[in-house]
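subagent[fold] <- orchestrator: predict structure for attached chain, return tokens only, no commentary.
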Amino acid sequence: MTYQTHIAQLTNLIADRNGTWDAISPESVARMRLQNRFTTGLDIARYTAAIMRKDMAAYDADPAHYTQSLGCWHGFIAQQKMISIKKHFGTTDRRYLYLSGWMVAAMRSEFGPLPDQSMHEKTSVPALIEELYTFLRQADARELGMMFREVDAARAAGNAIEEQRLLNAIENHQTHVVPIIADIDAGFGNAEATYLLARKMIEAGACALQIENQVSDEKQCGHQDGKVTVPHEDFLAKVRACRYAFLELGVEDGIIVTRTDSLGAGLTKQIAVSKDAGDLGDQYNSYLDCEEIDPATAQNGDVILNRDGKLLRPKRLPSNLFQFRAGTGEDRCVMDCIASLQNGADLLWIETEKPHIEQIAGMVDRIRAVIPNAKLVYNNSPSFNWTLNFRQQVFDAWVDEGKDISAYDRARLMSVDYDGTTLADEADERIRTFQADSAKRAGIFHHLITLPTYHTAALSTDNLAKEYFGDAGMLGYVKGVQRKEIREGIACVKHQNMSGSDLGDDHKEYFAGEAALKAGGAHNTMNQFAA
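subagent[fold] -> orchestrator:
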């Protein structure tokens, strides 16, 4: 309903109470309703899933319409990000949030900082989703609250034109609530455990779940060694568990992002079950590193495969894991992606060891030969040394082109000595256009940075500590933080307002009228930031 429709409906409702509700203001309730547009997490999940489906269709029509997100480890970080996006770009279109399991483990576990190995409490994941949306909904309430105050001021001044302008802006207000792509790791157990966690995440508001094909109890960060994958049927059971959770809860547009770690995972814990030659299990097993054996030499405990009439023994490590043949990672990635899309996945995630467009595109081309509209979510990871990688890519391209590279040492290209050189400038330009270029060439629908706000928090804290505890003293804070906040229009410079003080004052006035004891009077020091 519109603002005015809410007021009219509430006016009739209050009138029906025979005077007992006459102290309730219909317009105040209408304002509270607009400030609380999403009453449940499922409302959010359904709303944001529809946004993602629309954006996916727009990308299929034109890859320039790719989407982006940043990983956020706290509701305040997500809130400030979306406030900033609205301030600078006027819209939140095609901007999402990413919830990183790495950051949950490192920053939100009751055990303290943990590595990205699914050791944190799985309930901390839906708890963070709920927190993120609590802060985004509060950003809506705050922004609308300020607009309502401006409406009251325009009315008091008798400025009907300004009042109508503001009412139109309220009717067309764009929410800060955007889709979250949420990391469910490897599912935190069997398919039933995955389903139970998926339900909690969706009920908290998640419209998109990202799940990976590693073994749950051996899960590793995608950029670390020692990754162990599972056969497809094990993984697809968890994909189906996520879909059942979406459908049970009425989020029919829910998105499942299937991540393959096969490029960097050379191990498996299980031999896949195969019923027919060429089925998924047989394909999975075909990449195992095996040695042909004579039945007479078979040993107790051997696992033996029959392949084309030959008896093969997969190589088993002391850890009881089996290894794949070296150099099969890309083939396994392609197989994983096709199998996922053919079994209910909506988007793909290929975890690579470097940001190289042609490497990604080579795999996507093969996937799209089978499924033409295949699309990726891609991790623009802080685990990559972007500067070194792209300088080396330019160096290698120049070698192929026959250019003179005698002024550059490929192993030292990270050095500040090369800053400002032609090679460094070309590398920076490739980094700048990486997302647009790879969206067009490599089928990347969504670009995210998993851990950016982890790093920005550390960097900004380091800068403040260096200045404040050094010779700059209080000037370190004033010059490095507050003055910039004021001049750059950072909303939280008025931290009382950001935390909800003005919202509370509005409610006090609704509830108690002239008797309300409000915090936002003339002596509130936040008034110093009005100019």
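orchestrator: received. Logging for downstream: The first strand starts at residue 67 and ends at 71. The chain has a mean pLDDT of 94.
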